[in-house]
Amino acid sequence: MTENVELMNKYGPRLQYDRNFKGPRQRDRSCTDVPCLIIFLLFLAGWAFIAQYALKNGDLNKLMVPTDMFNQKCGIDSSVLKKKYLFFFNLDKCIDPLVPITGCDTPQVCVESCPSQTFVWDSMKNKDFNELKRLLVCKTDADKAAIYSKSDMQRAIDENRCARYYIKSQPFLNRCMFEFSDQLCELLPDSLFRNRRDTASSMLLPGNWSQELQMQAMALSLQSEAQARVAPQTSAKQAPVDEKVGQCRRQQINSAVIKEKMMQTNTRLAKMVGNLVAHFYNGTHDAQQLGEEIVEDLVNSATVVLTTLILTMIASLIFISVMRWLAGPILWISIFGVLIGLLVAIYYGIKQYTFWKNTAAVPQHALNLQSQLQNLLQDSNNWLYLSIFLCVSFVIILLLVIVLRKRIRIAIALTKEGSKAVSTVISTVFFPIFSWALYILAIAYAIGVGLYLATIGTPSFLMVRRLTESGEVTTEQCVCQGPAINYTVGAACDPNIFQQYCYINQRLESCIQTTCSFNEIDNPPFVQWSIAYNVFGFLWLSFFISAFSEMVLAATFARWYWTFKKRDVPYFTLTTAFCQTAAYHLGTLAFGSLILAICRLIRLVLEYIDSKLKKYDNAVTRAILCCMRCFFWLLETFLRFLNRNAYIMCAIHGKNFCTSAKDAFNLLMRNFLRVVALDKVTDFLFFLSKLLLTGGAGVATYYFLANNPSVIQLNHKAVPTTVVVIAAFLITSVFFGVYSMAVDTLFLCFLEDCERNDGSPEKPYFMSKQLMKILGKKNKLPQRQRRSK
Question: What residue intervals traverse the membrane (predicted)?
């Protein structure tokens, strides 16, 4: 009994508040929007059924079927029914990050089997003609059939109609990939790893040939020498060699072999970067060299980059912690900096307007971008319009600062409170990692189900004619008989029947330039609806994950605000908020995310309709679709804002979605000016903070690399600096995303606090003393405490 009296004396206002305001207390909550949760669970069950159906009936091999340079599906189209593997003349050219967009710039043909041995024309041209012709791989069977002598073979290879070289390959996803023997080490004595490199280098091929081919030639030479060494005639030396062979896999694999593999990896990465640079940089050799230098710089500076990013993460945490003292100065300096910058821009615009108005300039008539830009800069009217716009912007911002100066002070104070909240519950800054993991799982699940669904159905084929290299349609007269008598170009066909009954002459020679080619997979109606179901499921689930993350953070920061003495905040506040959200409010999250998913689906449908109607080029249709797309974009933006605040109110009070959304909207509308001031002020402040930390990381990295050349040798200091800047911006965005959620939550709590409480002992304010000072409010002490003072 005495203990209860002491608690009432110590925490009287707080306990009295808890009795009157049941929102923040977890034990007074109940499950919200249960019907929506049931619908969501049933929807997920249906999605799981579709996934099971897709896995059972789908076949990803249908999507992995390669296509050759003549747009023929290997092993499927009529002309390549027995050729299911794709062979690349030069696989090096496929090591390019833009290959999915630009394609692999090398001849690609369908073959019956991947090469089982290495072929090098320049070193094997003295072999038997029939053997060489058997090993030859050409673009078409006609090219190979037209070879009757080695001179014909040389001509075909020089004209790139046949491959000059290839390496022993193994099929991977029906594509022939290089194969390097893992048994090579067992055939080489230990001394070869040290002493035979120079001998083998004399066997290397010309420098313009691929490194893989050079390495294979070196391997062949080393292998042949190793076999000669272990011949029976040298049985006296067999034991030392066997001993070295036994040590090869155990000792050398960790040094020379792994180092060689790393060299291959770096070379491939350098080639990939070089190919990427080649698209924007003139000169293939220069681009390749630049790619190698970029990769070398990235490898050499990896330690510096990682260290800088770790320091950026620490700096972000420290920055958020000290924002409680620096938020005001940073914001006011930024505001006056923007105003001064506008004044300078206005002065420069007026100066340019005066100059070009009194200067006769001849416009540039060239159609390039530089000439058009110069014409814009020489037009005095453009400078006049720009100056007017800047003047209006300056006046508006200045008036807003004057009118909203008190509300800006409130925003600064709330920003400081957000800093305190994040610093107190530091685990919140790492909570987005959990959301990312869920996002990745959702994306992988949706993509996997979608791919399997896309393979369910009957493949359709069309009778088509090939295009020449100049893009013209071939004119081959392909005549079909028997079951294929009705086959015409552009009509449906069957590849097996086409191959048996379609010919180009009386000698029954198969059609070459006309084929029965794969068109698409005709999905049945159920599969089409399942694909739409899968798309909507991904939208709903992704919005649900985002909503769950927002409500957990909102509940955490709301618990911090509604704790009267902030030092009494529970240690596992984030864990408690997580369990509270999962136990009571999943239905609310399902309801809010469903609304956003429907809105996003409508936008996707409008984009699809717009893409289909572009060919009609109807101005009225385009205008209507543009208005509808703009409307639904604005609607989705508003719904995201409303949902975010509804989740915060649900975290505070524990009410359902509709009630929380209504309360949040009414509360925000009653404090509209405060909302505008806080939203824009905090967004601007967070942007400046991210810019400051990102720029600081980039400048520090460049300064360290420039002033310590003896520590790290680099070709381009901008390479690691660019990586640091991009990664630092992403890191700071994560930290300040949590910070933004904290400020939004505390803002709604602050508005709720102002309306529900009056500072009396029964209803004390929970806001900080700084906020009470700005608003001219204070808490009245209980009568017993006033007497004790």
Answer: 34-55, 304-323, 330-350, 383-404, 425-454, 538-562, 583-606, 618-639, 684-705, 725-751
- pLDDT value at 595 more than 90: yes
Cβ(744)–Cβ(645) below 8 Å:
yes
Across the strands, what pairs with 463? 516
Q: Tokens in use for 68?
A: 């050759």
Which H or E run includes 677?
helix 672-707
Residue 440: Cβ-neighbour burial (10 angstroms; 0-12, 13-18, 19+): exposed
Please list the residues that pair with 108 across neighbouring strands. 88
In angstroms, rounded to a whole number, what is the distance separating the alpha carbons of residues 132 and 135? Answer: 5
pLDDT tens digits along 97-114? 556 555 677 888 899 888
Is-contact 270 295, C-beta < 8 A?
A: yes
On whether the pTM is more than 0.70, the answer is yes
The 10 Å Cβ neighbour count of residue 741 is 27
Region for 258 from its dihedrals, namely left if φ exceeds 0, alpha if ψ lies in -120 to 50, beta otherwise? alpha
Note the pLDDT tens digit of each residue in 238-278. 444 344 444 444 444 444 443 444 444 445 556 666 666 65
Contact 218, 196 (CB under 8 A): no
Residue 744 CA to residue 38 CA, distance in Å, equals 30
Tokens at 449, concatenated: 């189900």
For the residues 286-290, what does the mean pLDDT come to? Answer: 63
If you write DSSP's letter for every residue of 292-303 in order, what string do you get?
HHHHHHHHHTHH
Note whether 230 and 244 are within 8 A (CB). Answer: no
Alpha-carbon separation of residue 98 from 64, 66, 295, 380, 734 (angstroms): 19, 18, 17, 43, 29
In sign, the C-alpha dihedral spanning 396, 402, 406, 410 is: positive
Rounded to whole angstroms, how far apart are CA atoms 626 and 629? 5
What DSSP character marks residue 21?
-
Q: What is the mean pLDDT of the chain?
A: 76
Angle, nearest 10°, between helix axes 405-424 and 718-756? 110
CB 397, CB 339: distance < 8 Å: yes
* Residue type (1 letter), 653: H
123 exposure class (CB count in 10 Å sphere: 0-12, 13-18, 19+): middle
Tokens 């059609």 belong to: 511
**Torsion angle of the four alpha carbons 569, 573, 579, 580, in this order, in degrees rounded to the nearest 10:** 40
Residue in 252, 268, 251, 157 with CA at minimum distance from that of residue 215: 268
Residue 660 backbone dihedrals phi, psi, to 5 degrees = -65, -40
Under a CB-based contact definition with an 8 Å cutoff, are residues 219 and 184 in contact?
yes
779 phi/psi in degrees, rounded to 5:
-85, 135
Burial group, residue 214, by CB count within 10 angstroms (0-12, 13-18, 19+):
middle
Distance CA 56, CA 594 (A): 29
String of b and e for 415-434 (b: at least 16 CB within 10 Å)?
Answer: bbbbbbbbbbbeebbebbee
Phi, psi (deg, nearest 5) at residue 166: -160, 165
